[in-house]
Amino acid sequence: MGRAMSTASFSDRHFLSANILLAPFCGLVTALLVAGPASAQTKIGPASTNWTVGKDFEKNDKARTNLSGAACVTKASPFTSCVIVNDEKKYAQFFSINETVIHPGNVIRLIAGDQEGDPDAEGAAYDDGYFYITGSHGRSRHHPENRNDSSYVILRFQVDTVTGAPAYRSRDPEVVGVEASSRIRDVIKAEVPKFYDKPLDENGVNIEGIAVKDGRIYLGLRGPSDDGSAYVISVDAKAAFAPDQDLQAKARKLQLGPDTGIRDLAAVADGLLVLSGPVNDQPAVTPAVRHWDPKSGTLGPARELQVPDAAKQGKAETLLVRKDVAGEPWRVLVMFDGLENGAPTEYAIPR
């Protein structure tokens, strides 16, 4: 009996040991089965969809359903001076934010009404007393035969650094106080020559985002997607508006994934936030926000956005920082091209 008990004890010990060794593996398999795809785990739902627009943006539905970029003087409340642009008209528009209500204000003319074409304004930024606006610098996707030379431009206008009010009285439809630079065209030719002046549907250059930080203008390209990478072109901000100064131009690649381009950029304290999305209409590409540090070149993980049902017919195209506090998630407002007044949606982006 003693021997039988000894044998049973030996078997039990082996059985228990095997279970101890296998338990973590089994737990991992179970966790994976329950968790599902990694992307489903990382999608960030809206922090608030309770945003409204006090009155429609100017001047017609074509403009207010094609909002493509926005920026504010501050990244903390109160937001008394902000600018929003659209890619259909020759003007931008001021607005303010009160809690979760956007209040559109005065229009500012960007180029003369009798000038051929339009700036195809795709992004807005603010830095050190200036609002900056970028044109697409590319051929239209839907009308590639249209060269639209007016889009090969960066614009800026000065405002009061405290109040955000323009340093002059805007008199639409007259262009007042707006400077224009066409120097980026030559930078594109030099840095990404094989994609220059090609239609977006043929993987051509199209600038969609702009941010200004530490004395440099950063331009995010929606197209091309080059072996899974998107381009950021940067130049010295002062030199961009001084023809005789060295632009110190640089082009850098961000590995965003196949068919993925940059839809907007936004400056934060320790770098830039990158809003990415499909280059064209690739349904497999989900809008996402990443942090990028231009100094170190470090690109953070993709924080995929869960788009509310009401916004799924649009494209996430505007990234506006509402809160940038160390140790806390970034609070951002995302607006969607193709939807009335941009369908503003707030997200909390983990650091």
Task: Walk me through the structure.
- With 351 residues, this protein is mainly beta.
- The protein has one domain (53-349): Tachylectin-2, Chain A.
- Helices cover 15% and strands 37% of the residues.
- The protein is built from 4 helices and 20 strands.
- The chain has helices at residues 2-35, 38-42, 61-64, 184-191, and strands at residues 52-53, 67-72, 79-86, 91-98, 101-109, 121-127, 130-135, 154-158, 178-181, 206-213, 216-223, 229-236, 250-255, 260-268, 271-278, 288-292, 303-304, 315-323, 330-337, 345-349.
- It has a 5-stranded mixed β-sheet with strand order 1-5-4-3-2, with no helix packed on it. A 4-stranded antiparallel β-sheet has the order 6-7-8-9, with no helix packed on it.
- A hairpin with a 2-residue loop joins strand 10 and strand 11 (216-223).
- The longest helix is centred in the first third of the chain and has 34 residues, at 2-35.
- It is globular.
- The protein starts with a helix and ends with a strand.
